[in-house]
Amino acid sequence: MIQAAHDRGLVVDGHAPGLTGPDLWSYMEAGISSDHESFTYEEALEKLRLGMRLMLREGSAAKSIDHFLPRLLDDGVSLENVFFITDDKHPEDLLAGYMDTIVRKAIALGLDPLDAVSMCTINTARHYRIDHLVGSISIGRRADMVILDDLENFRIHSVMAGGQPVGTRVHAFDYPEFVFDTVRYREIFPEDLQITGAPNCRISVNVIKVFPDRIFTQKDTAEVITGGTGVLLPDVNTDTLSTAVIERHGKNGNIGLGFVRGFGLRSGAFAQSIGHDSHNVIVTGTNLTDMALAANAIREMKGGIVLVQDGQVLDRLPLPFAGLLSVQPVEEVAMKLEELHGTIRDMGCTLPAPFITHSFIALPVIPELRLTDNGLFDVERFEIVENVWGFP
Q1: Burial of 45 (0-12, 13-18, 19+ CB in 10 A)
Q2: Residues 6+ apart with CB under 8 A from 7
Q3: Are 244 and 224 a contacting pair, CB within 8 Å?
Q4: How far apart are CA 310 and CA 206, in angstroms?
Q5: Are 243 and 357 in contact (CB under 8 A)?
Q6: What is the CB-side half-sphere exposure of residue 375 using CA atoms within 13 A?
Q7: 352: Cβ–Cβ under 8 A, 6 or more apart, which residues?
Q8: 308-346: pLDDT as tens digits
Q9: Rounded distance, CA 174 to CA 190, Å?
């Protein structure tokens, strides 16, 4: 597949978190030329020195510029093969700015303004082999330009796209009906979300541990208590929540079950149909009844984000376009998402970007432990593993 891409003149980007030494050399030998998933500065520097393009990511949940850029500057590293990306960003963050906010932050961290501009224009264009079209002001280029009032503070005066001024006119679109019919699973009951073991005992389980401003997870363990029926129960006192990934495309009806730690939720449940990269429905909570209600609310509104507490839907954001997007104006979506963030904080959640962090629980290409509709997945061992692993 990689060779086929190269044969077509395409660039192959990759995900290589934690990859160093001979494993990294083999990875690059396969023809993958960039990475945006480095865990540490030393790892990022090794990739850069071996000729890999280093992407500095500043999304809503995953951030690396503060960690990497000052050290690159202190070490005098050439930034020709370094550029900025955002990856996942909330609409309210996009309303505050896109690459311009990253450039301002980079300048504030000590980067020369011209280098900052290069890292979001010509460096990127060269990597993707489109520098013959964009990246400079010269004959034959597309004339996509940002005109500034002030380079140091990066105040934008106006924008040109294809040589034409960009205004504020909103375009109307007619969408095909099939894009609003992508959430296709049966009604979910609490029994569908049960992990069972021996009744009335304490059992050790594998747990996915998440972190603020990071998308990697850590393998963790917890002791959970089973009820008289043998159902393994979440425990808010140890921040051990039940979680499930529901196959939502109508292919097989799978439901993967597990436990997660790091959200800090004290009551209720939340669910969403944004779940990289398969975008199945992810639901997490302090009890299975609220989790089932949240999953069914997602099903009813054909995708989105929903918060549930004590058997009631507290708030929701419909995302009916492929279960991922809203057709409402971005300002309305941002306002509703801000409300959701406030509500989930009231439910005890401590993460700054809980919904984006939640979406990455189901991404089985980033270490260490993930949950798919097929079950709990150990990325490093590259195999499905059991939730229950023993008795304390």
Answers
A1: middle
A2: none
A3: no
A4: 27
A5: no
A6: 10
A7: 61, 212, 213
A8: 999 999 999 999 999 999 999 999 999 999 999 999 999
A9: 38
